[in-house]
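Researcher: Let's do a round of design. I'm pasting the structure tokens now; please hold your answer until I've finished.
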């Protein structure tokens, strides 16, 4: 990132993640910048123009997981210039294939089936998967227990639609076209955006910065969030 003096920071959450899930990142940036948070509670058609209408060359975008995918897609579609894009536990191609590390279509298909059968069980399963392997996995799991109830107002239709984003979006070409500074932050223990992704990112996007955070799962807790904020603000 060439300029650390951001006018604002826009945080975009991941799939099925409420405002409360963004609290560690919000707190990490709150002392230095005006922070705006976004959740994926609406359709792409509704969210996309709201996002880009507020982005400018002094905006740092921090996209966590699917929130990072949304940022990539919107920036590429509009050829927007921002101060920087930080992708936290984000894979431009979440399913992956034989040439690109990913979580696999089988898991994402099982999520779609579980959503149809038992939404609550799926959300509990997903939030446990987010914290799996973390240095403080048990404490984080307790922290995420309330996330499912925090999104009770979100429609099954939107959860299904945004789950399809995870399943179908391949944004590798869009990511390559972005003319903004990009940093990737991967969790060493992430079960959703695997740490093996680091090598593929470094090979395919040599201008991007890639950092691996020890002890971090898919969920950026307070310690990981402070590390991310310090890296982005200090250079």
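Researcher: That's everything. Go ahead.
Model: Designed sequence:
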């Amino acid at each position: 990132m060439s300029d650390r003096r951001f006018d604002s920071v826009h945080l975009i959450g991941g799939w099925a993640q409420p405002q409360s899930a963004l609290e560690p990142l919000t707190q990490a940036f709150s002392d230095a910048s005006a922070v705006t948070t976004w959740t994926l509670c609406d359709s792409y058609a509704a969210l996309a123009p709201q996002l880009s209408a507020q982005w400018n060359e002094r905006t740092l975008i921090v996209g966590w997981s699917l929130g990072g995918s949304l940022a990539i897609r919107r920036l590429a579609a509009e050829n927007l210039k921002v101060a920087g894009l930080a992708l936290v536990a984000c894979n431009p191609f979440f399913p992956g294939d034989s040439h690109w590390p990913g979580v696999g279509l089988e898991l994402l298909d099982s999520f779609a089936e579980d959503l149809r059968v038992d939404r609550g069980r799926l959300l509990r399963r997903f939030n446990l998967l987010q914290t799996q392997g973390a240095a403080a996995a048990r404490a984080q799991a307790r922290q995420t227990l309330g996330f499912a109830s925090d999104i009770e107002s979100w429609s099954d239709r939107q959860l299904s639609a945004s789950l399809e984003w995870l399943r179908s979006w391949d944004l590798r070409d869009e990511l390559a076209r972005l003319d903004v500074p990009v940093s990737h932050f991967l969790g060493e223990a992430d079960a959703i955006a695997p740490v093996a992704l680091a090598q593929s990112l470094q090979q395919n996007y040599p201008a991007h910065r890639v950092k691996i955070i020890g002890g971090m799962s898919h969920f950026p807790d307070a310690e990981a969030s402070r590390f991310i904020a310090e890296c982005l603000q200090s250079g």
